[in-house]
Amino acid sequence: MKTTGLLVIMLFAGLSAGISLATAAEEIKVYSVEQGRYVMTEKVDKSAAEWREQLTREEYHILREKGTEPAFTGKYDKHYAKGIYHCAGCGLELFSSADKFDSGTGWPSFTAPVAAENIATKDDSSFFISRTEVLCARCGGHLGHVFNDGPKPTGLRYCMNSASLEFVASK
Length: 171
Ligand code: FE
Known about the structure:
This protein is an alpha+beta fold. The protein has 3 helices and 11 strands, in the order H-E-E-H-H-E-E-E-E-E-E-E-E-E.
């Protein structure tokens, strides 16, 4: 009786260890504007079906299929309210209105993200052009591209899709 009980406990412990290993999401360090410090956060890993359910068609096309919204059509191109632009996929804080400028390109443009850790970059040589793709560090959503023809202080132009972002006004 005692042995059986122990075996059951051992089996259960082994199973839960296996389950927790399988579901343990990778943690990354990102900057939280809200908290004014770096924090650890779990990466967001969803299936295509889950993303399709959560996002609009346009958001899905841009964030998950690396699409681009037509110039001068996005809701944040000429948007200059004070606040933070979050990822439209996972809500991570990405860009601040303090770093936004009018690039004249028809896409919301920034000189820098809120922190280098909050974004990821990747070489993109699609369409026969060599560009640097910008993605959300937490969910891997496609945000746009970064170019080195931006204004001071960084000289960078983060050319984003409005549909990849969700603006939250500062209180
Ligand atoms: Fe995200």
